[in-house]
Amino acid sequence: QFFPPADRDQFYVEVELEPQASMAQTQALTTRIDRVLMENPRVRGTAWFLGESAPPFYYNIIARRKNNPNYGQAIVTLDSNRNALDMIRELQLRLDDEFPAARILVRQLEQGPPFDAPVEMRIFGPDLDRLKDFGEQLRTLATNIPHVLHTRTALSDTRPVASIDVKGSETSWAGLSEAEVAQQLFARFEGIRAGTVIEAVEEVPVRVRVAAERRSEFQNIADAPILVGRGLPSDSGRSLTSVPVSSIADVRLQPQRAVITRYNGRRMNEVQCFITAGTLPSTVLTRLQAALGTSSLADLPGGFSIEVGGEASERDAAVSRLMANVSVLAVGMVGSLVLALASFRLAALVGVVATLSIGLGMGALWIFGYPFGFMAIVGTMGLIGIAINDSIVVVAALKSNPLIPTGDREAIVETVVEVTRHVLATTFTTVVGFLPLVLSGGGFWPPLAVAIGTGVVGATLISLTLVPSAFCLMNARPAPAV
Question: What is the value of pTM for the model shown?
Fold first, then answer.
């Protein structure tokens, strides 16, 4: 798990209804969901945002939704971050059971770059219909994977669209054009801008349109009056009257794709999988890829391809950026060791200790049951630095004693015992310093503290045993004649 969850007393809830749902329907459902949330004694408060995403209240939260009446998002604040993961899981199951008409996601705050869904698969191809079919097949495979709560595809959402086919003969008789019919309908249902109102630092436009009850149903479109140039005289001297839209046009309701997604200029259907809180995305992705390899999607026709997105894609990008300068740093570190020790062999010995310390950090994480991620990598880098420092202290002390290359055991023991005090003091203060981070629990700081605090103990033993023995072997020479 490259990005650990955030240890915060907050989480957020996303609610999404069918694309044709109105703001009133969304508000009614979120009101019921809010009652369920507030029944929990640990919930201190909720803040709902309807029709758009919540403001970016955390560093990697991006407001991706705007002007979506079927969408709502809530920020939930708890009394503490204690056992928040268990509570999120329980709420997810309860909300899914009580409100099956909506896609509800109870999500914990994560670290790292933002992503829409933890597990994503992108299907590329030129044909939208085939992309949709392939996406549905992949989504079906994902629903059978354990710990997958909800799935969605980018091309599966459709919205009802009113199609108005204007009859040329009738509009000509009424003295209208198609553009005039469209303008009147737009003014009726969307409104005419009549000015602005300054609210705080934002300029809000003011629109004038008909009342909501006269534009909320599909039948209102067919019955909407269109002003024509025949009838009673007006103030301008031109006679005015109105006819319903249905008399000059055929009005029908038909489905339309809500969105056509593209990625790097290529048509794409993205399959998103939302998983149980606390489940490693890599585990679900591995199982999904195994199921994909045995399905008909394993052999896509020409022009179509599948690639991985979500947490895995962001993880790979972050690792690439993290490792981009490793080679430069490694060369600089080796050069510094060679110049400081004036020996390639001793620099290689210190490098062996640094390499072994990596295994110590991995072993410490495995023993304590923490996943390997970004903080573990940072902790391992810190462990390497401490191991190198201990090795340099021991090597410098051994080089300063001319009797050690002759194999004088007493001189070796005396020198190692002398530096042991300094090395053990560094080890003790490091372990004690990181102990509170281990005891505090959570998923963010403990991997770093365990990798450094526990690994440095083994690195100290290596520095005090392997380094003196290897130093004597590499620099052994006969004692001078007496």
Answer: 0.69
